[in-house]
Specification:
homodimer; alpha+beta; four-stranded mixed sheet; 4 strands
């Protein structure tokens, strides 16, 4: 029998997806549950809620709190934190490169590395040079991946994944969805999602 | 030396304040930290963010998720759950009665009981008869408290508490604030707030 699985839906620009992604591997192994990364774009989801940018930019007090909370969380997890500028970053290229790497051995490492350079080092993931360097650093064929990232099947896949997120009731990131359709929202719910998947497998 | 203290800011109509209030006593005792209840009104805070009602009513997917998440949380905590109708309830009378009971022996029990009848039994806390029954059940002088609840000093105190919440950067409930001004938002952050208060005391 295969392991139970949790789908980890995220936008690379999503702040709380950073600690979630950094915590995912250890928690996954501990729980005996597989995690499948499902990058999508929050932009269209936010637009459907009437927001032209991240709610953390629209609602000032909430945004101020989020940055402080994230700083505290990262300190607790002993992971580096540096705020990227601008926020949110345009995550289109990173998302396409991740989808272009699906099934490849470096896929999970790429997702983790994109979060780390963005929120750990404050670098711009909008910059193709940064994404290329990330791919290179994890031993992936950078040029080839970036070429694939611009292909129609990859562009279409990212669009359909974003639509699927909406159909699943996803309204923010990170979100975790179990095989039986239970939705868990937020870094704080990663443990609950894994426990649910194990219990209902 | 007196115990470190965390201020627990809530609106009685706030859904996640229910599990937070049900968990507060045990966690407080375990952490050796005092908790001071600070009821306020979310309405003016939401209004400042451009919302005429709860964001859970405005953003459908988020609202649907919240009710399911709350149901799961309550099941996990083995506390009853029943959705009040309408939501959100008008919490003005309950908040005033809580402020009118400040310093009284039944104050904390009253706050807990209001949450329990509303989200555990689905009863209407807008109804003065319900609030009177709650006061009576916990052994408080119900008529006297309700009379005090309508006095000018109590009305003014609730207004100034709501303004103070805004000044502290509070944008939702429950929120927890430590003596050194650290803000923690959400039922999920109660443990972090208590740990912070103990560490920095």
């Amino acid at each position: 029998m295969s392991k139970p699985c949790v789908d980890f839906w995220f936008d690379f620009a999503s702040t709380y997806s950073y600690p979630a992604c950094m915590r995912a591997q250890a928690l996954r192994d501990e729980a005996g549950v597989a995690i499948r990364y499902r990058p999508f774009l929050l932009g269209p989801v936010f637009k459907a809620q009437g927001w032209a940018t991240s709610p953390f930019n629209i609602y000032e007090a909430k945004g101020r709190y989020m940055w402080r909370d994230l700083e505290r969380l990262c300190a607790e997890l002993s992971i580096p934190f540096r705020r990227p500028d601008p926020f949110p970053q345009n995550s289109l290229l990173a998302a396409r490169a991740a989808i272009a790497s699906e099934g490849d051995s470096w896929h999970d490492a790429f997702c983790k590395a994109v979060f780390r350079v963005q929120f750990g080092e404050g670098r711009s993931i909008e910059d193709p040079v940064v994404i290329e360097a990330v791919l290179h650093d994890i031993g992936a064929p950078a040029r080839l991946v970036l070429e694939r990232a611009q292909s129609d099947p990859v562009k279409l896949k990212l669009r359909s994944e974003t639509e699927e997120a909406g159909r699943l009731g996803i309204f923010g990131a990170p979100s975790f969805v179990t095989a039986d359709g239970e939705l868990f929202w937020g870094n704080d719910r990663l443990e609950s999602a894994l426990a649910w998947a194990r219990r209902t497998a």
